[in-house]
């Protein structure tokens, strides 16, 4: 049935038929709309259930922010490569990697560019060099929930 309706929409040629094609296409859309899954089912308009992390420039990092590692950049000397990449042998090559613990929220304790002091949910402190790490600011509510969940899992691991 749907194939017949779509065939009627696109099978004709000419300006008069084009108007008829648009009308037929509109009928198909209205025919299918009640059967489509609603994308906003269960959400109120303006709901903030889904948030996105914001990539930070080094000068945007502030104490008290929750950040996560997006990329770690390693410099590998080009003489380790097998040649043919069009650069001298003593020039470093910057290779970005996605870290294994990339989504773990880190709380920024202090900033002295290019270095920042962060605290992990485990209680460990780390220094990060923003020239080698690409950071993203996390939504505060999400970061606190992830921080709390990782603390709970750490406590369970210590008890066992």
Count of DSSP H/I helices: 3
Largest sheet: 7 strands, antiparallel
Q: Count the strands?
A: 7
Rg (CA only): 27 Å
Query: What level of helicity do the residues show?
Result: 25-40%
Q: Give the low-pLDDT segments.
A: 1-18
Helix/sheet category: alpha+beta
Percentage of β-strand residues: 25-35%
Order of helices and strands: HHEEEEEEEH
Describe this structure in words.
By secondary structure, this protein is of the alpha+beta class. The chain has two domains: 2-35; 54-159, no CATH class. The protein is built from three helices and seven strands. Strands 1, 2, 3, 4, 5, 6 and 7 form a seven-stranded antiparallel sheet that branches. A hairpin with a 5-residue loop joins β5 (115-119) and β6 (125-129). α1 runs antiparallel to α2. The longest helix has 20 residues, at 140-159.
Report a brief summary of the structure.
The protein is α+β, with helices and mostly antiparallel strands.
Task: Give me some keywords for this one.
single chain, 160 residues, alpha+beta, seven-stranded antiparallel sheet, 3 helices, 29% helix, extended, disordered N terminus
Task: Give me the secondary-structure topology.
Elements lengths: L1 H9 L4 H18 L21 E2 L10 E12 L14 E6 L8 E7 L2 E5 L5 E5 L3 E5 L2 H20 L1
Antiparallel strand pairs: 1-7, 2-3, 2-4, 2-7, 4-5, 5-6
Helix pairs in contact: 1-2
């Amino acid at each position: 049935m749907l194939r017949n309706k779509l065939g009627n929409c696109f099978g004709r040629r000419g300006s008069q038929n084009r108007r008829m094609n648009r009308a037929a296409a509109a009928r198909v859309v209205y025919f299918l709309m009640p059967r489509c899954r609603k994308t906003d089912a269960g959400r109120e308009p303006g709901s903030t259930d889904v948030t996105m992390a914001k990539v930070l420039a080094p000068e945007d990092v502030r104490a008290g922010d929750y950040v996560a590692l997006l990329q770690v950049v390693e410099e590998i000397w080009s003489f380790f490569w097998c040649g043919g990449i069009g650069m001298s042998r003593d020039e470093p090559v910057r290779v970005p990697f996605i870290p294994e613990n990339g989504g773990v929220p880190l709380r920024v304790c202090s900033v002295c560019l290019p270095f920042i002091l962060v605290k992990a949910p485990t209680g460990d402190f780390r220094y990060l060099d923003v020239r080698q790490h690409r950071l993203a600011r996390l939504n505060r509510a999400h970061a606190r929930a992830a921080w709390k969940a990782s603390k709970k899992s750490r406590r369970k691991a210590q008890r066992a």
